[in-house]
Design a protein that fits this description.
By secondary structure, the protein is mainly α. Helices cover 43% and strands 5% of the residues. Strand 3 and strand 4 form a beta hairpin.
């Protein structure tokens, strides 16, 4: 299997170290068998939160157990000690950090994938048959467009807009990209409950987690005026608030864990935007466990 070591302190999404797929290639041996696979994730991590929400929406606790990792990794390279045996079993002398999220194969003791979009698609395709698909027929291009917008025009733009070492012109251009994207989403969501269909899809999971990160992480490095302009997109934030009230979303939102992870990793300067909270997430978050009978391994 080809392995691409990830950076220890990524500023944006990292290149996945492993990209195996369930059921896509008979030579891989990754057949879709219930309880063969296991998730390892932290909901303080954006990708981990995305997978956790999808896992709950599809009610896969009895099919694909989940092991939840600490918010702050315990290794100096930002990896998790608990994941090191999986990485080393999957790639001899693996040189990079043992990062989550991970989809592992309990039969072989090896990693199938560390690529969150692939993991979500495989869980939906091979184990989500009893529930409405997060990837409806014909929606793939729309979902991919939302993924690109979230990654490039919101996450990267917010990161660049709050980078103290960047020039003023660069920060202002990044902020305008961010605001333009939020404005487009705000107009689109006016009068709509969901992004692309009359049901929750992966596009909603993607956007909601991106908005959580924007408010709980990125705004800490923006000035107050910028955060007020971001908060002015009322339809967008009402949408985020509605989804937070859904048990599959809100039950996984651990604000303290996100804060601890951010402060452990971040070396940037805090700005006045840190004092301007956009949403009171705790007030709107559903705390009811989405799957009371869910099988979760806390080893």
């Amino acid at each position: 299997m080809t392995v691409a070591p990830s950076a220890a302190h990524p500023s944006t999404r990292t290149t996945p170290a492993f990209r195996g797929r369930i059921g896509s290639d008979a030579r891989s041996g990754h057949y879709a068998v219930p309880r063969r696979y296991r998730l390892h994730l932290s909901t303080a991590c954006p990708d981990g939160l995305r997978i956790a929400v999808a896992h709950s929406l599809l009610q896969l606790g009895g099919v694909c157990p989940a092991t939840f990792l600490p918010a702050v990794p315990d290794c100096p390279d930002s990896g998790h000690t608990a994941l090191r045996p999986l990485y080393e079993a999957s790639a001899h002398r693996y040189p990079g950090p043992a990062l989550g999220p991970v989809l592992s194969d309990d039969w072989s003791g090896r990693i199938v994938s560390t690529h969150a979009p692939d993991i979500m698609r495989d869980l939906d395709r091979h184990f989500g048959g009893c529930h409405a698909s997060l990837y409806p027929c014909g929606a793939e291009s729309e979902i991919e467009a939302v993924e690109r917008m979230c990654a490039e025009d919101i996450e990267d733009a917010a990161q660049n807009a709050g980078t103290a070492g960047a020039g003023r012109a660069e920060r202002e251009a990044a902020l305008e990209t961010l605001l333009r994207s939020l404005g487009a989403l705000d107009r689109w969501l006016t009068g709509r409950d969901y992004m692309i269909r009359d049901q929750i899809t992966a596009a909603d999971v993607e956007l909601w987690v991106t908005l959580v990160q924007l408010d709980t992480v990125h705004r800490h490095h923006l000035d107050a005026a910028a955060v007020e302009r971001i908060a002015a997109h009322t339809a967008l934030w009402q949408y985020a608030r509605r989804l937070a009230a859904h048990p599959a979303f809100g039950a996984h939102l651990d604000l303290d864990a996100i804060s601890h992870r951010h402060h452990a990793r971040c070396r940037g300067l805090e700005a006045a935007g840190a004092a301007v909270q956009i949403l009171d997430w705790a007030a709107h978050t559903a705390r009811t466990a989405p799957e009371p009978s869910r099988s979760v391994d806390h080893r």
